[in-house]
Write a structure and sequence with these properties.
By secondary structure, the chain is of the alpha+beta class. It is about 50% helix and about 15% strand. A hairpin with a 5-residue loop joins β3 and β4. InterPro entries: Cro/C1-type_HTH (IPR001387).
């Protein structure tokens, strides 16, 4: 399935209790929504795609398949206003959270749940070290 269809499907399940509820909210027949989700959003009319994306807060840009929700756009706007120190801090936290959500331990258990301290240090502008404590642990 294409990326936009997957994003639409994920956003519908995140924002609405059911596809039927979303169809009612967007004002598009349920059969049209089901068809678009089953066959791919790309097969729908342009107006239908725009209406679906606007209702879900998805901004689809260009042919590169860049899809932004309102939350993602807000975060990118805030990130663009940060200095080097702030960008480094965000990059460090994102890396730790990505690792927590995607990696498993050697025994196959997930890295999720409670917390213990991890210290990240790396140079940024002016070769000054930046230290911060980020919390992560595995759930037993």
């Amino acid at each position: 399935m294409d990326k936009l269809t997957n994003i639409v499907r994920d956003e519908i399940s995140r924002q609405y209790k059911s596809v039927r509820q979303f169809a009612f909210a967007v004002g598009i027949p349920l059969s049209t929504i089901n068809s678009a989700l089953h066959n791919g959003i790309g097969g729908s009319s342009f107006d239908t795609v725009v209406q679906i994306c606007r209702t879900l807060g998805i901004c689809a840009l260009g042919e590169e398949n860049i899809h932004l929700t309102e939350d993602t756009q807000r975060i990118l706007d805030q990130y663009a206003k940060l200095d080097d120190y702030g960008r480094h801090t965000i990059a460090s936290v994102i890396q730790v959270e990505y690792d927590r959500c995607t990696k498993t331990f050697e025994d196959g258990s997930d890295l999720r749940g409670g917390y213990s301290s991890v210290n990240l240090s790396a140079p940024v502008a002016n070769d000054e070290p930046v230290s911060m404590n980020v919390l992560a642990s595995r759930e037993d």
